Amino acid sequence: MEPPKRQEKGVETAIHTYGVQHIQFQTQRGTGMDTIVNDFTLNIATANGTGSQSANLILMQTIADMGVNVSGKNLFPSNISGLPTWYIIRASDAGYQAPGNRTHIQVLMNKATWEADIEACEPGTVIIYNTDVKLPVVRDDCLVLAVPMTKMARSIHPKLARMIANIIYVGVLAHLLNLDDDAILSALNKQFKGKQKAIELNSTALALGRDFAAENFGEERGPYRVEARDVDDDYFMIEGNEAIALGAIYGGITTLAWYPITPSSSVAEGIINWLPKLRHDEDGKTTCAVIQAEDELAAVGMIIGTGFAGGRGMTATSGPGISLMSEFIGLAYFAEIPCVIWDVNRTGPSTGLPTRTQQGDLSMLYEASHGDTQFPVLIPGNMEECFEFSWRAFDIAERLQTLVFGFSDLDLGMNKWKCSGFTYPDTPMDRGKVLHTQKEIDAIENYGRYRDVDGDGICYRTLPGSGIDPILYRGTGKDEDGTYSEKPEVYHANMERLKRKIDNSRTSGNWNYLLWKYGKYDSRNRRYSRIYRHESLTMQNTLTSSFADC
Questions:
Q1: Is residue 342 domain-resident?
Q2: Parallel, antiparallel, or unpaired for β 514-518 and 540-544?
Q3: Would you call 411 helix, strand, or coil by DSSP?
Q4: Neighbouring residues of 51: CB distance < 8 A, sequence distance ≥ 6
Q5: pLDDT score of 457 more than 50
Q6: Both 165 and 23 in a single domain?
Q7: Is residue 89 one of the residues assigned to a domain?
Q8: How many CB atoms are located within 10 Å of the residue 151 CB?
Q9: pLDDT above 90 for 157
Q10: What is the pLDDT of residues 325-377, one digit of tens each?
Q11: Residue pair 471/459 in contact by the 8 Å Cβ criterion
């Protein structure tokens, strides 16, 4: 069958394939359409629970394996299945990762959002739709490509047609975008990891989709292309939560206490999955205790106990969990017990939108709990920092004898991002000011648990089980010796010392112009940086990695 030729505006070409009529319309770009390389946003509209995630990850991995900067954002509902889901892929040679302000290629699979998705398309958008949904696409200002995805999938495996249909659109996109065959097969193998039957089934679907597009659309496939770039051999794709999990293991975590909550659960799951490979003794037993607590309060209490005992305890939660942990967080601050909490932020308040992203917890973390508190907050902006900040958090917590927050969000934590490699710990653990023997205590004149000997606000501590007389860690008012006190001057001096401890950890800098950002906005502000450079403005483009440094 001859591929359709572009018609004069308003003239239609009808093609019958699989019993479905394909209508090809003139786009506003005209016949002299310019090719746009490695710079587009692709939106795939599906339903939760239909198996589309594997197809979308294969597509993104293929583009990444071709050396192109790419990012993906999964917009999914908080129920188990059935509600609308969108997966947005951004390809950008400039390294931009935000989806941008428009969709260039729209894939339609979900009748529940069909009309809204079509209406959102700007003129010139390439629309690929599943004709088996049996809903029309009437847009004479867009390039509309019809594909009977479900029917084609049934020809491969009737029982799995709903899932296989997703791989069909990957094959169609492979033709439209000119994706490399070897890269697609490599991505397919990475996704299904040796499951030969799944690989063969999906390879067949990919080929079917690609052949269909080549036969029916030919060169009438829109302006967007993917061209290979130099590939960084060290690169890999990873979710932020998994990077945090790996960082915690390399940081020496000894207790993981957690309670499931979206979007932080995969931090704990990542630690659990990697422990058998990375942290075990000669007998193969893991060297980290993992406890799924009955609630968030129990989880944070367990890691405070770990810190008191000299271990390295961590939990992961989200905004509602932080709210529940509030009193225990104050105990860790006032009693000066090191531990780490990762807040993977979701939209609040209350239950809010559990599967949508937000950064609204930042101020809550910095001054968490009641009374005057002030916590170091480490805020990664990419995968490299998720890993590094995770292991460094334990060192900072023990050095400052305080609770340290890691602050991520759903976008960073639950989506895959390109990573060029990790910075691993290359020095011994920083255990801070720890006295191990009575001789060390006797060397300090008038030792007291809460006495600032060095003037930096950080006192010397001892650990249970070291043979030294136990010292009470108080969450109540106390003097420098740890003795209960309600005297105003004693309380004031203690609070000033705690503040001095945090203030002394700050860094500083001098800049003519400051573009301040934090977290995932690191990559999204690259565009602003280019604008400033284009306007010849002198500026310092700084990423705030710790809110305590601001």
A1: yes
A2: parallel
A3: helix
A4: 162, 163, 166
A5: yes
A6: yes
A7: yes
A8: 17
A9: yes
A10: 999 999 999 999 999 999 999 999 998 888 888 888 999 999 999 999 999 99
A11: no
Find the CATH number of the domain harbouring 164: 3.40.920.10
pLDDT in tens, 304-332: 999 999 999 999 999 999 999 999 999 99
Q: Two tokens at 433?
A: 């000011």
Give CA angle at 239 (313, 98), nearest 5°. 125
pTM above 0.70, yes or no: yes
What's the one-letter identity of residue 208?
A: L
Q: Which residue type is seen at 305? A: G
* Last residue in a domain, options 225, 246, 277: 225
Let me know whether 29 and 98 are in one domain: yes
Nearest to 234 by CA among 424, 419, 426, 423: 419
**In whole angstroms, what is the distance from residue 23 CA to residue 284 CA?**
62
Mark which of 354, 384, 419 sits at the end of a domain. 419
Distances (CA, A) of 438 to 159, 247, 475: 72, 34, 25
- What is the span of the domain harbouring residue 454? 434-503
Give the model confidence (pLDDT) of 100-132 as tens digits: 789 999 999 999 999 999 999 999 999 999 999
Name the 3-class secondary structure at 186. helix
pLDDT tens per residue, range 166-182: 999 999 999 999 999 99
pLDDT at 522 (0 to 100): 60
> Considering the chain, what percentage of its residues have pLDDT values greater than 70?
86
DSSP labels for 119-177? HHPPTT-EEEEEGGG------TTSEEEEE-HHHHHHTT-GGGHHHHHHHHHHHHHHHHH
- Of 341, 337, 324, nearest in space to 268 by CA: 341
Residues 440 and 312 in one domain: no
Rounded Cα–Cα distance for residues 413 and 99 (Å):
17
- The burial class, CB within 10 Å (0-12 / 13-18 / 19+), for 83 is middle
Q: Which helix (H) or strand (E) holds 365?
A: helix 362-366
44 touches 24 (CB < 8 A): no
Peptide bond connecting 99 to the previous residue in cis, omega within 30 degrees of 0: no
Name 29's Cβ contacts closer than 8 Å, sequence gap at least 6. 124, 223
Cβ(491)–Cβ(518) below 8 Å = no
pLDDT greater than 70 at residue 274 = yes
Would you state the structure tokens that stand for residue 142, as one six-digit string?
Answer: 């867009």
